[in-house]
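Annex B. Sample input.
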Amino acid sequence: MASAIPGYRYGDPGLPPSPLSEKDFADLKKSLLFGADDIAALRKAHDVVKDQVEAILDVWYGFVGANPHLLAYFSDPETGKPVGAYLDAVRKRFGQWIVDTCRADFGAQWLAWQDEIGRRHHRTGKNRTDGVRAAPHIPMRHLLALVLPISATMKPFLANKGHSAAEVEAMHAAWTKAVLMQAILWCRHYTNEGDF
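Annex B, continued. Sample output.
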């Protein structure tokens, strides 16, 4: 899944592997009640949302833009003004993240990529991929809190292609579990050694 996005990419052979063991990841999925039905529902969701990505991003960017405390993480700390090029670069990655989540290919490369995404939100990696001057760290509380708006706002898009209410519910439940699973994985960088 190579792209022109700077820094490591999903599937990049130089990307360090996730320190999470296969068993630990399997146990996390069990704790989230995430199983084969969810993978099938996400893959169905892929076909539903793949041509709606920009509209989904419009909703999410509208939410961030309407909340100054969130927009601050994409803004120059001195001027308080949003960094347009940074917002644009993140938007491209965010769109790819929607598609990747719905592909539901949760193997070792994907797991390594989640660790990299977490690093890019944490002070150890924030702003480095894009070489920008923006807020240097996104607190873990916001990383976890955004699971709700990113999950809740997806449901209308999942209902746009004429699937039954039960199918929409299954896709939405799978999406929500997958978003929470990723947010949990991203939080590893925010914990002390041995606490994750």
